[in-house]
Design goal:
Oligomer: homodimer
Strand content of chain A: 25-35%
CATH architecture of chain A: 4-Layer Sandwich
Radius of gyration of chain A: 18 Å
Order of helices and strands of chain A: EHEHEEEHEEHEEHEEEEEEH
Largest sheet of chain A: 6 strands, mixed
Strand order of the largest sheet of chain A: 5-4-3-2-1-15
Shape of chain A: globular
CATH topology of chain A: Nitrilase/N-carbamoyl-D-aminoacid amidohydrolase
Number of domains of chain A: 1
Chain lengths: 293, 293
């Protein structure tokens, strides 16, 4: 079984958790009815992107794993006989929270978790306030549809993360994401940012000979007190192991992006481009330095 | 002086070393006359791409560094008051050869060498027969036009190489290259290969917030005894620190690709996308493993 049918759920979010989950569930059901055996949700899909401001009360949005959402999605995975990749604000202990992807197996159990390792902090993306950097390492999650190299958003800019997943045998690289434009930015800057986002992830596909599946949200979300806004740029996409675009969503609409992936192509591509063979591991030691000064 | 004018010399090559060098020199002179202070030649520009076959007699093409070509190009650099990046088949000792980039300073001296670290070996690209893997590490070369992260061809597929150069303070990533299509391949495969080549290098620009300058040859080169051919795809290009294309050459013509680079943009881009700040160096140790099994 080298053919995998996957679905990426690109949606907008509101302040109403139940509304968000209900729409996610509806799209997951439609994806499964269309033949998807793997369904991937975007980053932090149960809420708006709350990191536009730093507010202690927003930790109320977090939940444990297992917890209400992972249990509900596990039941849905079991009912539909699919694997679901979800992305939750994890409450691990009082004062200890993570940005965590959780993978639900076809039997409804939790196949594994990934806690976002690289945490951004930029104007409008104040994640270092909310999320403790992950401590589960770069470890693919084993499922009935393959070994999933699940990473989250900011991780997507780091070739090291993709490589470590590939070296650990990941069959797919998966990025739930919440990224968008500052509406105040100029059109050419917006274009460069969005294109850079596509390009660097397609680059991971090329460098590792693996498909990449990236799921982003859509919609304009205002920060509280008129303190800016983010126009999430959607554009969820799937690239093949040569970085070729297999499917791509719009920049502004909710949609289910269906894709058929032939996993055997990764081995074919790695045979003509055997990058893993020639890595100079004897000379890579200083990659663990902050800077080589 | 944050503005740098650079020129990439994209040319075809023949079996006649003097012919190749004479055309290189003519284009270097025109580039300098147009204001270039940095001129970059393609990989192994003094000969055809001889690695299409394995033949001991072809080691005769190698020369020492310093040697005839580096001396001639050094004199030209001094005359024109420019920095030149050349790419030579280096004879280091009998039976010990490298694929070496050499950088000539404005005073004609050798600023530094880089010996290609990742050596390919694929049908038509039998480089492991000719080139001992480099032993000078991933070390930028300091010049009057900046710290040059010079890498060579196959290196361009390795995010590790680009990152190590960036961590060592490189201002630019530079890739002399000889890459092309098997004329027997289908059009869609050719398109994917060429696009992957652009994409992975633009990805290095994005991941490291640095300009990338890649110089490739053009022309159809037949292997001896009718044993295949390579259609070199040209397409030399310069990307800015968000991976944006600043200049791009044709796929089939000799040309001088001139570009103006504002080096201050790298710091601007790294301030909005501070990837170096958030690298999880505590978790990158296994990048020095061949595979994590």
């Amino acid at each position: 079984m080298t053919i995998l049918t996957a679905a990426l759920i690109q949606q907008h979010c509101t302040a109403d958790r139940l509304d968000n989950l209900t729409r996610s569930e509806g799209m997951i059901r439609r994806a499964a009815a269309s033949g998807a055996s793997l369904v991937i949700l975007q980053e932090l899909h149960t809420s708006t992107y709350f990191c536009q401001v730093e507010s202690p009360s927003l930790f109320d949005l977090a939940e444990s794993i297992p917890g209400p959402t992972s249990t509900a999605l596990g039941a849905l995975a079991a009912e539909l006989n699919i694997v679901i990749v979800a992305s939750l604000f994890e409450r691990r202990a009082p004062g200890l929270y993570h940005n965590t992807a959780v993978v639900l197996e076809k039997d409804g159990t939790i196949a594994g978790k990934y806690r976002k390792m690289h945490i951004p902090d930029d104007p409008g993306f104040y994640e270092k306030f909310y999320f403790t950097p992950g401590d589960l390492g770069f470890t693919p999650i084993q499922t009935s549809v393959g070994s999933l190299g699940v990473l989250v958003c900011w991780d997507q800019w780091y070739p090291e993360a993709a490589r470590l997943m590939a070296l650990a045998g990941a069959d797919l690289l998966i990025y739930p994401t919440a990224i968008g434009w500052d509406p105040e930015d100029r059109a050419d800057e917006k274009e460069r940012q969005c294109d850079a986002w596509f390009t660097v992830q397609r680059g991971h596909a090329v460098a590792n000979g693996l498909p990449v599946l990236a799921v982003n949200r859509v919609g304009l979300e205002q920060a509280p007190r008129g303190d800016g806004a983010i126009q999430f740029w959607g554009g969820s996409f799937v690239a093949g192991p040569q970085g070729e675009i297999l499917a791509q969503a719009s920049k502004d609409k909710e949609e289910i992006l269906m894709v058929t992936i032939d996993r055997s192509r990764s081995e074919t591509v790695r045979r003509i481009w055997p990058f893993l063979r020639d890595r100079r591991i004897d000379e890579y030691g200083e990659l663990v330095k902050r800077f080589r000064d």
